[in-house]
Design brief:
This protein is about 45% helix and about 15% strand. It has about 250 residues and is an alpha/beta fold. It has a single domain, classed as Alpha/Beta hydrolase fold, catalytic domain (Rossmann fold, 3-Layer(aba) Sandwich), CATH 3.40.50. It has a six-stranded parallel β-sheet with strand order 2-1-3-4-5-6, sandwiched between helices. α3 links the parallel β3 and β4. α1 crosses α11. The protein is globular, with a radius of gyration of 16 Å. The two termini are about 15 Å apart. The relative contact order is 0.19.
Length: about 250
């Protein structure tokens, strides 16, 4: 964080499922000259110790991280990371200045029958193994059209030996915890920016509208020709929305 930047809130960036803090590198590079930025590997991925956790468990781990910063933060979450950001704002509102939710899971429409099937014991592990071995091909499908190669660190995380198991654990956690997360959405008092791609094949665009309707203070920015991987395709846009949320927090 640059000198004299005390008016700007710190930023916590939460990657999706699967993923790592490296997924945010293009955005982190844009923010770091003027902001304190944290982009940790979440439990079960990359260098993070311990097993994977559901949204509540992730929120508890991240609350301890933010408590050490000593200031309320703008929390940005992509996909599954958005569900964790919401849970953090529900459980520890004193730590969250604002939310930026990118292609967010966190509402009933964000989960379809396939998502719920992948939460079943055995099915989730098998699906996770197949999907994550696909690496870049899976990323291009999620994007919806041609996508530059994903960052090497991201592909390496997907193919890590524990990533498919973490995927399954998180899938079960989201399905099991989603009803409580949704019930608590009206309690979120932080301002919320939602970014959603019209071509998203992973979280349907209708889920963004549904989520916005349940949150007291939110707005949706639509990106017409983008899919689920907005942090990779539109880093300047995502960084600009996050930076705007940090001012005067």
């Amino acid at each position: 964080m640059s000198p004299g930047d005390g008016a700007r809130a710190p930023v916590l960036l939460l990657h999706g499922q699967p993923g790592s803090g490296a997924d945010w590198e293009p955005i982190r590079a844009l923010l770091e000259p003027d902001h304190l930025v944290l982009a940790p590997d979440r439990p079960g991925y990359g260098s993070a110790p311990g097993p994977a956790l559901g949204p509540t468990g992730n929120a508890e781990v991240l609350a301890a991280t933010l408590a050490g910063v000593g200031r309320r933060a703008v929390v940005a979450g992509h996909s599954y990371g958005a569900a964790i950001a919401l849970r953090l704002a529900e459980l520890r509102p004193e730590l969250v200045a604002a939310l930026v939710l990118v292609c967010p899971a966190g509402s009933p429409r964000s989960l379809n029958a396939i998502d719920r099937a992948m939460a079943l014991p055995g099915v989730g592990e098998a699906a996770g193994w197949v999907l994550l071995r696909g690496g870049a091909a899976a990323a291009r499908w999620a994007f919806g059209r041609a996508l530059p190669m994903p960052p090497p660190a991201s592909v390496a995380t997907w193919r890590d030996g524990r990533a498919w198991r973490s995927f399954a654990v998180e899938q079960r956690g989201l399905v099991e915890e989603l009803p409580e997360l949704v019930r608590a959405l009206p309690s979120v008092r932080a301002s919320v920016d939602i970014l959603a791609g019209r071509r998203d094949r992973v979280v349907p665009p209708s889920a963004a509208d549904e989520l916005a309707g349940a949150l007291p203070s939110s707005r949706v920015t639509w990106v017409p020709d983008s899919g689920h991987l907005l942090p990779w395709e539109q880093p300047e846009l995502v960084a600009a929305v996050i930076a705007r949320s940090t001012r005067n927090r």
